[in-house]
Design goal:
Blueprint: E1 2-5, H1 7-19, H2 27-32, H3 35-41, H4 48-64, E2 83-88, E3 93-96
Parallel strand pairs: 1-2
Antiparallel strand pairs: 2-3
Helix pairs in contact: 1-3, 1-4, 3-4
């Protein structure tokens, strides 16, 4: 599984964190899962949105891992893995993050 975020959704999450706004309609719940990543990198050196783009997949991966059924597989069953990634919407490329 690849967990990837584009900068558009993350920019919205950063705006929520910086300006304490609530996004309307169905965009709110979609951005809500990214807000913890924006909060984690707020005030760090570098570009706020780019830092949050890089933090979002890793943060989500850490939060999902304990709850995922596939993380409790037996030793005989191959474990599934997930890789955090950044999706560049303009270029259509995926950059895998460490």
């Amino acid at each position: 599984m690849c967990i990837a975020f584009s900068s558009g959704a993350v920019a919205a999450a950063c705006e929520v964190v910086e300006k304490y706004i609530k996004l309307p309609g169905s965009i709110g719940p979609m951005v809500e899962v990214i807000v913890p990543a924006a909060e984690a990198v707020q005030g760090k050196p570098g570009d706020f949105v780019d830092n949050a783009v890089r933090e979002a997949p890793s943060g989500l991966q850490r939060r999902l891992r304990p709850r995922a059924k596939w993380s409790r597989t037996s030793s005989r069953t191959p474990k599934r893995r997930s890789w955090p990634a950044r999706y560049d919407l303009d270029e259509g490329r995926v950059e895998f993050l460490s």
